[in-house]
Automatic annotation (TrEMBL):
Keywords: Biological rhythms, DNA-binding, Isopeptide bond, Nucleus, Repressor, Transcription, Transcription regulation, Ubl conjugation. One of its GO terms (molecular function) is protein dimerization activity. PANTHER family: BASIC HELIX-LOOP-HELIX TRANSCRIPTION FACTOR, HES-RELATED. PROSITE patterns: BHLH, ORANGE. InterPro entries: bHLH_dom, HES_HEY, HLH_DNA-bd_sf, Orange_dom. The keyword Transcription applies. It is found in: Cytoplasm; Nucleus. This is BHE41 protein. Its main location: cytoplasm. It comes from Pardalotus punctatus (spotted pardalote). Residues 44-99 form the BHLH domain. The gene is Bhlhe41. GO terms for biological process: regulation of DNA-templated transcription; rhythmic process.
Amino acid sequence: MDEGISRLPERQLLEHRDFIGLDYPALYMCKPKRGVKRDESKETYKLPHRLIEKKRRDRINECIAQLKDLLPEHLKLTTLGHLEKAVVLELTLKHLKALTALTEQQHQKIIALQNGERSMKSPVQADLDAFHSGFQTCAKEVLQYLSRFESWTPREQRCAQLLGHLHSIS
């Protein structure tokens, strides 16, 4: 039975040198993994890797450009000349932190109003009140010291001048 069937020629494998002179880009070449030097296989995959990396860098640059456009003008003016990518990122972080703090303050005020508190002081106002209270306490201590150890009386001109000066400052 085998004698009547002519033998088919064995399939010959094509090698890279068989394709020399043809117009196929290196991307479409199928190279066998065995027997191929590493440098040749690296060259085959470098182009897609470069394209992927270029697209990634382009996306990063586009996002940084959009962040730069979103920054308020007063932040852009704090730097001289061209805004570097790192500066854009730093300014964006600074702006986001400020916005987060402002949002948190407003949230605290809303909660305070919902809880029935009429006026919740801002942190700046609370600091000013604490400073004013401390200043008044210090002024009282100074006047008590002067009256006790220096024998100053409130009727003296220098005592009246000191009181007037402390009131004008506070």
